[in-house]
Amino acid sequence: MNHIFQEGSDRSKPTLLLLHGTGGTERDLLPLAKEIDPEANVLSVRGNVLENGMPRFFKRLAEGVFDEEDLVLRTKELYDFLDEAADRYDFDRNNIVAVGYSNGANIAGSLLFHYQDALKAAILHHPMVPRRGVELPDLSTKHVFIAAGKNDPICPSQESEELQSLLENAGANVVLHWENMGHQLTYSEVQAASTWYKKID
Ligand code: MLT
User: Fold this and answer.
1) Which residue among 38, 61, 89, 93 has its CA within the 20 to 30 Å range from the CA of 132?
2) What range(s) does the Phospholipase/carboxylesterase/thioesterase domain occupy (predicted)?
3) Closest to 146 (Cα-Cα) out of 132, 128, 131, 133
Protein backbone atom coordinates (compact mmCIF):
# COMPACT_ATOMS: atom_id res chain seq x y z
CA MET A 1 0.00 0.00 0.00
CA ASN A 2 1.23 3.58 -0.63
CA HIS A 3 2.44 4.92 2.67
CA ILE A 4 4.86 7.08 4.63
CA PHE A 5 6.83 5.72 7.57
CA GLN A 6 8.55 8.12 9.96
CA GLU A 7 10.64 6.64 12.72
CA GLY A 8 9.96 8.15 16.15
CA SER A 9 12.61 9.30 18.60
CA ASP A 10 11.39 6.95 21.37
CA ARG A 11 11.17 3.27 20.44
CA SER A 12 9.04 2.46 23.49
CA LYS A 13 6.24 4.63 22.06
CA PRO A 14 3.44 3.23 19.89
CA THR A 15 3.29 3.45 16.12
CA LEU A 16 0.53 5.84 15.07
CA LEU A 17 -1.36 4.43 12.08
CA LEU A 18 -2.85 7.37 10.17
CA LEU A 19 -5.90 6.73 7.99
CA HIS A 20 -7.28 9.62 5.93
CA GLY A 21 -10.84 10.47 4.87
CA THR A 22 -12.32 10.04 1.37
CA GLY A 23 -10.34 12.05 -1.18
CA GLY A 24 -7.35 12.36 1.12
CA THR A 25 -3.82 11.03 0.99
CA GLU A 26 -1.21 9.71 3.38
CA ARG A 27 -0.01 13.29 3.93
CA ASP A 28 -3.30 14.67 5.36
CA LEU A 29 -3.12 13.51 8.97
CA LEU A 30 0.64 13.95 9.55
CA PRO A 31 0.00 17.13 11.62
CA LEU A 32 -2.30 15.12 13.93
CA ALA A 33 0.51 12.71 14.75
CA LYS A 34 2.68 15.65 15.84
CA GLU A 35 -0.16 16.86 18.08
CA ILE A 36 -0.85 13.43 19.61
CA ASP A 37 2.68 12.12 20.12
CA PRO A 38 5.68 13.80 18.47
CA GLU A 39 7.99 10.98 19.68
CA ALA A 40 6.01 8.07 18.22
CA ASN A 41 6.60 6.26 14.92
CA VAL A 42 4.16 7.25 12.20
CA LEU A 43 2.78 4.89 9.56
CA SER A 44 0.44 6.80 7.29
CA VAL A 45 -1.34 4.78 4.61
CA ARG A 46 -3.24 5.72 1.47
CA GLY A 47 -6.48 3.85 0.74
CA ASN A 48 -6.26 1.46 -2.24
CA VAL A 49 -9.75 2.16 -3.63
CA LEU A 50 -10.49 5.06 -5.99
CA GLU A 51 -13.98 6.59 -6.12
CA ASN A 52 -14.07 9.08 -9.01
CA GLY A 53 -10.35 9.60 -8.50
CA MET A 54 -10.67 10.00 -4.72
CA PRO A 55 -8.70 7.54 -2.57
CA ARG A 56 -10.69 5.56 0.03
CA PHE A 57 -10.09 2.45 2.11
CA PHE A 58 -13.04 0.38 0.77
CA LYS A 59 -15.84 0.65 -1.79
CA ARG A 60 -19.29 1.97 -0.98
CA LEU A 61 -22.58 1.52 -2.84
CA ALA A 62 -23.87 4.98 -1.80
CA GLU A 63 -23.14 7.59 0.86
CA GLY A 64 -23.09 5.65 4.14
CA VAL A 65 -23.91 2.30 2.43
CA PHE A 66 -20.80 0.15 2.47
CA ASP A 67 -19.84 -2.65 0.08
CA GLU A 68 -19.44 -5.27 2.82
CA GLU A 69 -17.57 -7.79 0.69
CA ASP A 70 -15.00 -5.15 -0.26
CA LEU A 71 -14.86 -3.86 3.33
CA VAL A 72 -13.90 -7.33 4.59
CA LEU A 73 -11.31 -7.82 1.83
CA ARG A 74 -9.76 -4.36 2.31
CA THR A 75 -9.70 -4.78 6.08
CA LYS A 76 -7.68 -7.97 5.63
CA GLU A 77 -5.41 -6.22 3.12
CA LEU A 78 -4.66 -3.47 5.66
CA TYR A 79 -4.24 -6.03 8.48
CA ASP A 80 -1.68 -7.96 6.36
CA PHE A 81 0.07 -4.70 5.44
CA LEU A 82 0.50 -3.92 9.16
CA ASP A 83 2.29 -7.26 9.62
CA GLU A 84 4.56 -6.53 6.63
CA ALA A 85 5.28 -2.94 7.74
CA ALA A 86 6.15 -4.04 11.31
CA ASP A 87 8.71 -6.49 9.84
CA ARG A 88 10.09 -4.03 7.31
CA TYR A 89 10.44 -1.06 9.68
CA ASP A 90 11.08 -3.14 12.79
CA PHE A 91 8.39 -1.70 15.05
CA ASP A 92 6.28 -3.48 17.69
CA ARG A 93 3.29 -5.02 15.86
CA ASN A 94 1.40 -5.18 19.16
CA ASN A 95 1.70 -1.47 19.85
CA ILE A 96 -0.20 0.23 17.01
CA VAL A 97 -2.65 3.06 17.73
CA ALA A 98 -4.87 3.95 14.77
CA VAL A 99 -5.84 7.56 14.15
CA GLY A 100 -8.54 7.73 11.49
CA TYR A 101 -10.89 10.34 10.13
CA SER A 102 -14.23 9.54 8.46
CA ASN A 103 -13.58 6.73 5.92
CA GLY A 104 -10.22 6.14 7.63
CA ALA A 105 -11.97 5.88 11.01
CA ASN A 106 -14.37 3.37 9.44
CA ILE A 107 -11.60 1.03 8.27
CA ALA A 108 -9.95 1.37 11.70
CA GLY A 109 -13.31 0.43 13.26
CA SER A 110 -13.48 -2.50 10.86
CA LEU A 111 -10.00 -3.68 11.98
CA LEU A 112 -11.36 -3.73 15.56
CA PHE A 113 -14.57 -5.50 14.49
CA HIS A 114 -12.71 -8.27 12.63
CA TYR A 115 -9.40 -8.84 14.43
CA GLN A 116 -8.58 -9.22 18.10
CA ASP A 117 -4.93 -8.26 17.64
CA ALA A 118 -4.97 -5.63 14.87
CA LEU A 119 -4.67 -2.54 17.08
CA LYS A 120 -3.81 -1.66 20.65
CA ALA A 121 -6.01 1.42 20.63
CA ALA A 122 -7.84 3.67 18.19
CA ILE A 123 -8.75 7.32 17.85
CA LEU A 124 -11.79 7.48 15.58
CA HIS A 125 -12.79 10.91 14.28
CA HIS A 126 -16.38 10.84 12.96
CA PRO A 127 -16.71 7.07 12.48
CA MET A 128 -19.78 5.03 11.53
CA VAL A 129 -20.73 1.46 12.47
CA PRO A 130 -18.61 -0.47 9.92
CA ARG A 131 -20.81 -3.63 9.91
CA ARG A 132 -23.86 -4.92 11.71
CA GLY A 133 -24.86 -8.44 12.68
CA VAL A 134 -21.35 -9.78 13.24
CA GLU A 135 -19.78 -11.08 16.43
CA LEU A 136 -16.88 -8.90 17.57
CA PRO A 137 -13.66 -10.38 18.96
CA ASP A 138 -12.79 -9.95 22.64
CA LEU A 139 -11.66 -6.32 22.84
CA SER A 140 -11.22 -6.20 26.61
CA THR A 141 -7.68 -4.81 26.49
CA LYS A 142 -8.49 -2.15 23.87
CA HIS A 143 -8.97 1.59 24.31
CA VAL A 144 -11.05 3.59 21.83
CA PHE A 145 -11.66 7.33 21.60
CA ILE A 146 -14.57 8.38 19.39
CA ALA A 147 -14.98 12.03 18.39
CA ALA A 148 -18.41 12.81 16.96
CA GLY A 149 -20.29 15.91 15.83
CA LYS A 150 -23.78 16.62 17.25
CA ASN A 151 -24.74 18.04 13.86
CA ASP A 152 -22.90 15.58 11.65
CA PRO A 153 -25.14 14.80 8.63
CA ILE A 154 -23.00 11.77 7.67
CA CYS A 155 -22.81 10.15 11.13
CA PRO A 156 -26.03 10.76 13.11
CA SER A 157 -25.50 10.86 16.89
CA GLN A 158 -27.36 7.53 17.43
CA GLU A 159 -24.80 5.88 15.14
CA SER A 160 -21.89 7.12 17.28
CA GLU A 161 -23.70 5.84 20.40
CA GLU A 162 -24.40 2.49 18.70
CA LEU A 163 -20.71 2.15 17.79
CA GLN A 164 -19.74 2.94 21.39
CA SER A 165 -22.08 0.28 22.75
CA LEU A 166 -21.02 -2.40 20.22
CA LEU A 167 -17.36 -1.84 21.17
CA GLU A 168 -18.17 -1.72 24.89
CA ASN A 169 -20.16 -4.95 24.64
CA ALA A 170 -17.00 -6.55 23.22
CA GLY A 171 -15.12 -5.34 26.31
CA ALA A 172 -13.38 -2.23 24.95
CA ASN A 173 -12.86 0.84 27.08
CA VAL A 174 -14.54 3.59 25.03
CA VAL A 175 -14.69 7.37 25.45
CA LEU A 176 -17.22 9.23 23.30
CA HIS A 177 -16.33 12.90 22.87
CA TRP A 178 -18.92 15.30 21.42
CA GLU A 179 -18.38 18.46 19.40
CA ASN A 180 -21.22 20.79 18.43
CA MET A 181 -20.06 20.84 14.82
CA GLY A 182 -20.75 18.68 11.75
CA HIS A 183 -18.51 16.16 10.00
CA GLN A 184 -15.39 18.33 10.04
CA LEU A 185 -12.32 17.42 12.03
CA THR A 186 -11.85 20.16 14.63
CA TYR A 187 -8.73 21.23 16.47
CA SER A 188 -10.53 20.88 19.80
CA GLU A 189 -11.35 17.19 19.18
CA VAL A 190 -7.72 16.56 18.21
CA GLN A 191 -6.65 18.16 21.50
CA ALA A 192 -9.19 16.02 23.39
CA ALA A 193 -7.81 12.91 21.64
CA SER A 194 -4.28 13.94 22.57
CA THR A 195 -5.23 14.36 26.25
CA TRP A 196 -6.96 10.94 26.20
CA TYR A 197 -3.92 9.29 24.51
CA LYS A 198 -1.62 10.49 27.30
CA LYS A 199 -3.77 8.63 29.86
CA ILE A 200 -3.77 5.21 28.19
CA ASP A 201 -0.70 3.03 28.58
C1 MLT B 1 -17.59 6.32 4.33
O2 MLT B 1 -17.94 6.13 3.19
O3 MLT B 1 -16.68 5.71 4.90
C4 MLT B 1 -18.33 7.37 5.09
O5 MLT B 1 -19.50 7.70 4.41
C6 MLT B 1 -17.51 8.56 5.34
C7 MLT B 1 -17.04 9.19 4.06
O8 MLT B 1 -17.74 10.05 3.51
O9 MLT B 1 -15.99 8.82 3.60
Assistant:
1) 93
2) 6-198
3) 128
